[in-house]
Amino acid sequence: MRGKQLNVLGFSNFGTPREVMQAEYLRLLELARDGMIQVEIETYPFDRVAEAWQRQAEGAGKKLVVVA
Questions:
Q1: H-type helices in the chain, by residue range?
Q2: What is the pLDDT of residues 2-60, one digit of tens each?
Q3: How many helices (H) and strands (E) does the chain have?
Q4: What is the pLDDT of residue 55?
Q5: Of 3, 20, 33, 61, which residue is 20 to 30 A from 52 by alpha carbon distance?
Q6: What's the pTM value of the predicted model, to 2 decimals?
């Protein structure tokens, strides 16, 4: 990187003050409690775990859950 005009961009929770993280986490929990967060899920039985992995690799767009 030396001698180059570069910008390095990223994200890290480590720079966020603890009180901000706590407040936003509590806000997230409240939204979940109030039904304001909806997550589409697709379930797979354990014997189809390979299919679930493949679906995830293809970008399912949903939360994939494997159940025993």
A1: 18-33, 49-57
A2: 678 888 788 787 888 999 999 999 999 999 999 999 889 999 999 999 999 999 999 87
A3: 2, 2
A4: 92
A5: 33
A6: 0.50
Looking at residue 1, its pLDDT comes to: 54
Sign of the CA dihedral 53, 55, 61, 65? negative
Task: Give phi and psi for 28, each to the nearest 5.
Answer: -60, -45
Question: 60: Cβ–Cβ under 8 A, 6 or more apart, which residues?
Answer: 42
Evaluate whether 42 touches 61 at the Cβ level (below 8 Å): no
Alpha carbon dihedral 35, 37, 40, 41, in 10-degree steps, equals -80
Are the C-beta atoms of residues 46 and 66 closer than 8 Å to each other?
yes
DSSP symbol at 48: G
